[in-house]
Structures are given as structure tokens and as C-alpha cells.
Amino acid sequence: MSNKTIYINKPSITDLEISYVNDAITNGWGEKCYDYINKFEKTYSNYIGVKHTLATASCTGAIHIALMALGVKPGDEVIVPELTWIASVEPVLYIRAKPVFVDVQEDTWCIDPKKIKEAITPKTKAIIAVHLYGNMCEMDEIMQIAKEHNLFVLEDAAEAIGSEYKGKKAGSIAHIGTFSFHGTKTLSTGEGGALTTNDTDLYEKSKVFNDHGRNPKDPENKMFWMRNYGYKYKISNLEAAMGLAQVERAEELVKRKREIFYLYKELLNDIPGKINAEQDYVINSCWLPTFVFDKSLNFDRDGFFKYMTSLNINSRPFFYPLTSLPMFEDKPQNVVSYDIYYRAINLPSYHDLTNEDIKLVVDSLKQYLKK
Ligand SMILES: Cc1ncc(COP(=O)(O)O)c(C=O)c1O
Asked: How far apart are the CA of 61 and the centre of ligand 1, in A?
């Protein structure tokens, strides 16, 4: 048993984060109250390789703003993956559009382009491609389908900060990308998120939606007047100060996540099952090492979590198929999603986790399988 708790994730905090946040809290007021936000957005755009970043209070908020900017209206259909965190889909419901759940691929656990094609109707407006656990969706195929059917694509890259597909970073490929900087993510601001795009028109619309509908093009002498209502999912200068330090360290943070993943991969090699995919043309930033146990092992997920908790080791279940939740209609036709979730787990991964900690996690997991 570990005499310290091994968490599932936590941020890496160094003197850099502390010094920027200290500066923001001491000096970042008055005319300086947006300085860290501006620097963070600029540095993030450079890192992701996009023209524009809009920092937000959360990824959920960024998705809501993005769907509004894309012009998704009540009654429109938005194609979404069956397996993802609910936050990828909730903003579709906020707009009273209809999420159409499609199955994922067996290897990447990301939305299956073939199933997207089958789900398109005259009402389809957009596709949300979620890069699950750092794994990358098949973006070329998805973008081609979108082009043929005149659809927008939103990349939910909340879990894939730093992942790359054919040399392009997650969140830079589709019309719009979204990110989360929640405390569990590879880069963190405590709570926070971002919307990224190369499309200046979409960026400007997003900014207006994120500022209560206030449009800088409206007459200057009409302060507090606006033609449309909007929302407010803004990040604070304090959070952006932490974000700036984190994005300046992004390569180091992603490098350690990848080292952790590859050690797990090596140590789990003798267990029948599947670990996160990394296609030849992908760099997986390995947010959460995830293992799907082979059916032959009759894996008991609940027993596993109980056992690991008793050893002070946090682990997590794979997401439920969203249509199995009470507020949606069951869709067991999404067979891959319904088949894998119960035998799949996420393992701890954070910068300060030692290689000995990782060995302890895997040894404990193997002990459990022998029971
Ligand atoms: C795939 C995915 N999308 C969206 C979100 C929402 O992020 P946030 O908590 O920043 O709103 C998360 C967060 O865990 C996520 O994993």
C-alpha cells in the first residue's frame, strides 16, 4: 500500500506559476487587468498553431460559445460521439439543438467517421469530434465528410492539449477547437478553457457571444447598449497568469505525460487488452492512460476501484455511453461504446508521479487480476 495518496491527476506547479499569479494579484488591476489574459491567449495561439484564442471560464462554456458562433439553432442536429464526458454534449442541449449519438472506433475510442456519414440528415448542422483521453479522431475523414455535406466541425480537444495529427495540433484542424484547463488537465488554470480558430469571423462572433452580446462595432457612445443578448464565460487575469506559466511549460508537461504513458504501456504489455491508440501519423499527448481489458478476463470494474482505493490509489472508470444515462434514449446499436465501457479504466498520470509510483499502480492492478 502507498503511504501517500496517488491521485488520478493534478497540476504541476513551479515557481513560474507562483511568480506570475503573485504578480497578477499584486499588480494586475486597473489598466493591467487584462494583461495576463492577452499574453496567455497570444502564447496559446502560438502553441496550438492558430490565429485566434479566446480564453474562457471552462471548456463547457467554450463549446456553448462555439456552437452559437457556428450558428447552431434550436432543432438543428449535431452529431456527437457516444463515449465522451457529458460536457461535450450539454451545450447542444442548452441551445435546444438535438445531439445525435454515434458510435466510436474500437481502437481510438473516438467518433467513427463511417457512423457519422450514416447519421447525416437534412437537419445536421455540425459534428463534435472529441479527442478522447488524448487519442486523436480521424480528422482528414471527418473534415472531408463535413466538406461534402456543408457541415461545421468542432474539435473538443479538452483532453488532448498537445496531441498532434499529421503535424497539426488538436484544436487547430477543424473550424473551431475547444480546450479545458480544469485542475485535472495537462495544462491547468484551476478552472478554465479556451476556444481556438483560424477563422477571424468566427473568433469575432465568439467574442461578442462571450461578452453579453456587446459588439465593438456598435456605436461607442452607446455604452451598455447591445442588439443581441449573449453569455459570459470569461477567464480572470489571475487564472490566465497561471495559464501563461503552464503554456510556457507545455512541451515539458506533455513530454512527462508521454513518458508516464509509455512506462504503463510497457508494464501492462502482458495483460490481454488495449491501451490508448497512437496512429503512425499521430502524437498522443497521453492525458489519461486508459486500459480496456479483454473480455476473457471478466473484469469487475467496481471490485477493482474498491481494491485500488483501499491501497490509496485513485483510478477512474471509462465514461458511460451517454445514451445509457436517464435523460437520453438508450442506443445499444452503438455496440462498441456499450461493449467496452464496463471493462475500461483510467490510470493515474501527473507530472510529479514517479516511475516507482507507476510500478506500484501496475503491480497493484496485477495483484487484483490474480484474486
Ligand atoms: C472531453 C471533454 N469535453 C469537455 C470538458 C469540459 O471541460 P470543463 O470542465 O473545463 O468545462 C471536459 C472536462 O473534463 C472533457 O473531458
From this structure: 10
